Amino acid sequence: MARGTAWEAQEDEGSFQEEISMMMRVQNVTQVTEFQLLGFQTLGEWQALLFAVFLLVYLLTLTGNVLVVAVVSQDPRLRSPMYGFLQQLSFLELWYTSTVVPLLLASLASWGRSISFSACMVQLYFFVFFGATECFLLAVMAYDRFLAICSPLRYPLLMSPDACRQLVALCWLTGVGTGLLPSLMISQLDFCGPNQINHFFCDLPPLMQLSCSSAHITEVAIFVLSVAVLCVCFLLTLVSYVFIMSAILRIPSTAGRRKTFSTCGSHLAVVTIYYGTMISMYVRPSAHLSPDINKIISVFYTVVTPLLNPVIYSLRNKDFEEALRKLMRRQGLRCGVGAGGQVCRR
Question: Best label site of 41, 51, 215, 254, fewest CB within 10 Å?
Answer without folding.
Answer: 254
